Amino acid sequence: MDFKEEILKVITGQLDIEKILDKVGRTYGAIHKTRPIIYGGIKGVLIWDYIVWNELTFLDENKKITSLKTSFSDEEMEKEFNYHLEKYGI
């Protein structure tokens, strides 16, 4: 199964995001929330993780990671996550 197929399985709830994160070559912190979205016309997953601070990223079907927001505030990140979910969610 190629990476695009794996992302589609994550989007449709058939595969846990944790199963494919090691394939993108980036270490994520603790995953707080994930949701499927279409961002810039490309399918992928919105990921909210945290280590020292919160980070919101978009992992697309081509393994490209786009950082959307960083913040120390959980409340601010919750608003940002919900904004992206409402605007781009599938």
Q: Which terms would index this structure?
A:
90 residues; four-stranded antiparallel sheet; alpha+beta; globular
Describe this structure in words.
The protein is an alpha+beta fold and 90 residues long. 27% of the residues lie in helices and 37% in strands. It is built from two helices and four strands; from the N terminus they run αββββα. Strands 1-2-3-4 form a four-stranded antiparallel β-sheet. The model has no long low-confidence stretch (mean pLDDT 87).
CA distance, first residue to last residue: 22 Å
Helix content: 25-40%
Radius of gyration: 12 Å
Backbone structural class: alpha+beta
Shape descriptor: globular
- Give the helix tally: 2
Write the layout of secondary structure elements.
Layout: H1 3-11, E1 30-39, E2 42-50, E3 54-60, E4 65-71, H2 74-88
Antiparallel strand pairs: 1-2, 2-3, 3-4
Entry summary:
The chain has 90 residues and is of the alpha+beta class. The chain has two helices and four strands, in the order αββββα. The two termini are 22 Å apart.
